Every structure is written in structure tokens, then in C-alpha cells.
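Researcher: Quick test of sequence recovery. C-alpha cells follow.
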């Protein structure tokens, strides 16, 4: 979900927190990380936009099965919950695939 290699490296569930934030609000971890780096002048806005395009919303598959076991949840149930919480004012389903209506790259369904 991000390019950062030095934050939250000791917590397996952080990636799920940021993924569900992306589902609910349309902003993933990369949006948060890149915006902070832009404000601190560690990267340019253009670089931040490219990073968001590449990493925001990336599915956290590394520990997926382990976390599903820990939560005693079937993967299909998790995915249905994700679909349930995609707000129609942010998300649009096109040809069976969820797409953001608007995004920083201007490639959303309503951009």
C-alpha cells in the first residue's frame, strides 16, 4: 500500500488498516505518506502523484491468510464487507470492477 520501508514494519495488520481506509475514504497509505513528504519538501508534488498512482489501494496480500485466520473470517466475507463500505459518492462499479470517481491522477470515472 505504500513505498515507505521504515514505518509500521513490526505490525502485520497495519496494511489492512490502511487498505480499509482506502475502501472507506478513497485515500490509501501512500496518499498520507506522500502528502507528508511533499509538505516536508522531501519529494515533489509530481513524484507524490506518481507514487499515489502506483501504490494507493494496493491489496495487502502478504499476511492476508494469517489475518483471516486470526479474525476467524472467510476471505469471501472480507471482500463482501469491503464492497459494502465503498461509498457511492466515492466509488463507481464499471464492468464489474470498482473504480474511484475522482483521483489525483484525473483517471477516475467522473474526471
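Model:
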Amino acid at each position: 500500500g505504500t513505498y515507505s520501508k521504515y514505518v509500521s514494519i513490526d505490525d502485520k495488520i497495519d496494511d489492512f488498516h490502511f487498505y480499509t481506509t482506502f475502501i472507506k475514504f478513497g485515500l490509501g497509505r501512500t496518499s498520507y505518506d506522500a502528502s507528508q513528504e511533499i509538505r516536508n519538501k522531501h519529494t515533489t508534488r509530481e513524484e507524490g502523484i506518481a507514487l499515489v498512482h502506483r501504490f494507493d489501494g494496493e491489496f495487502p496480500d502478504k499476511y492476508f491468510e494469517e489475518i483471516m485466520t486470526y479474525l476467524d473470517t472467510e476471505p469471501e466475507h472480507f471482500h463482501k464487507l469491503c464492497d459494502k463500505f465503498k461509498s457511492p459518492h466515492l466509488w463507481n462499479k464499471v464492468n464489474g470492477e470498482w473504480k474511484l470517481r475522482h483521483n489525483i491522477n484525473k483517471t477516475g470515472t467522473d474526471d
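Strands lie at 91-94, 97-100.
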